[in-house]
Design goal:
Length: 411
């Protein structure tokens, strides 16, 4: 009897200590993305290029290799979205305009290796708004192509519009697909930050769509590819991108107390792009607070629209500070150089962007592979709970089995 009591006491103590350990480990981790400070150096993140800017002033708060010509995968889709909004503003189309669906768009929408919404020409009428939501929330390639063909008259015509807009803005970008992907296209982190900023400046309602955590399309519910939504305080966009050439990319934006920060990370890994974005956003808010007077002065002196859009005229020195809790570089299973170095170069770009007789997506245009998305790690507290919960169940089962077999009352 005493032995049974001793075992019961041991089991109870074990469960209590396990629960206490879980609570101690979970609490700081759960609040990690709510802190107002973080250390940010070149060794703090895994990326080939990254940048942090203040939205209102356009000031660059921190950057690492921001002018590298990198494949941006599905982040290219935001230039398509911008041109769709521009066409709406000009009265060429409306949100309720019915979009014609080509066979090429249908075929791309049914690519099994791509996150998408399947399109059809039978019994469905797709409005601009429905397809726009599919592009922004689900990163749907078929929907992107359908919108591009409608606005540009053809895929080639729309590509010309995309590259003309990049030239107009003076950003370093070259588009070979409305949805992103071909290895010889590029979009620098600085260019993506500018695209994000201009999209929000001119069409602030876009944030209502980028903030959606899921989309109901033809009766099917699709989660947003931006898994930071609802997990990081103030985040309400912007766009993910993933393929074998680009690695894992993400342009993010969040607002706290009237301050909006924009971050871009390219050439990252699937397990690091969101945690590193969290680190960059926290840094941005801290830096913006530290440099509040300088930022206010920049905003006051913006004046002309051309000056407002010129990133070279509003650079300031980055803020340097230390946070001992986040100073160590995390381990990574994948070197970003191994992701990006796949033969893309300026020399082998095609001379023209003529429309091919039959458009078939290249393998490099496959974005947001569901099997890749499933590799996103769960938060550490989920793993801890799973392990400790499993041990606890095993201990209870062992106790029940042991007590019944060996601690029976003597007859």
């Amino acid at each position: 009897m005493k032995k049974r009591k001793r075992i019961s006491t041991y089991i109870i103590r074990y469960l209590f200590s396990t629960l206490l350990t879980v609570l101690l480990l979970v609490q700081p981790n759960a609040l990690a993305n709510q802190t107002e400070s973080a250390t940010l150096t070149e060794d703090s993140i895994i990326a080939t290029g990254a940048i942090v800017i203040d939205f209102e002033s356009g000031v660059e708060l921190w950057s690492y290799n921001p002018d590298a010509r990198l494949n941006a995968a599905s982040m290219n889709k935001m230039m398509t979205v911008y041109l769709v909004y521009e066409a709406i503003e000009q009265g060429l189309i409306a949100l309720d305009t019915i979009v014609p669906i080509s066979q090429a768009a249908i075929d791309l929408s049914r690519n099994p290796n791509e996150t998408n919404v399947p399109l059809t020409t039978r019994g469905n009428f797709y409005t601009v708004e429905r397809l726009l939501n599919a592009v922004i929330v689900v990163s749907a390639g078929g929907a992107t192509l359908a919108l591009a063909e409608m606005i540009g008259g053809s895929r080639a015509g729309f590509l010309e519009m995309m590259n003309d807009k990049a030239t107009e803005w003076g950003i370093d970008a070259y588009f070979l697909s409305p949805s992103g992907g071909p290895r010889d296209s590029w979009l620098t982190p600085r260019a993506m930050a500018t695209l994000t900023r201009k999209s929000i400046q001119r069409f602030p309602e876009i944030l209502e769509r980028t903030a959606l955590t899921e989309l109901n399309f033809d009766g099917w519910v699709y989660p947003s590819t931006n898994t930071l939504l609802g997990e990081f305080q103030g985040i309400d966009g912007f766009k993910t991108g993933t393929n074998n050439t680009a690695g894992a990319c993400f342009a993010g934006t969040a607002e706290r107390d009237g301050v909006r920060i924009i971050t871009v990370i390219q050439g990252s890994t699937w397990s690091r792009r969101f945690p590193d974005t969290t680190l960059m956003l926290n840094y941005g808010f801290y830096a913006a607070e530290e440099r509040a007077e300088e930022l206010a002065e920049v905003i006051a002196n913006l004046g002309q629209e051309d000056d407002y859009d010129d990133p070279d005229s509003i650079l300031i020195d980055p803020v340097e500070y230390d946070d001992p809790d986040t100073d160590e570089l995390q381990n990574s299973e994948q070197d970003p150089d191994e992701i990006i170095d796949d033969g893309a170069s300026e020399e082998n770009l095609p001379e023209t962007s003529d429309e091919p007789p039959t458009y078939e997506p290249e393998s490099s245009e496959i974005t947001e592979n569901p099997s890749i998305i499933s590799e996103h790690p769960q938060p550490r507290w989920v793993l801890i709970l799973s392990i400790t919960g499993g041990f606890s169940v095993l201990c209870v089962l062992f106790y029940i089995f042991y007590s019944r077999r060996y601690l029976k009352k003597p007859k």
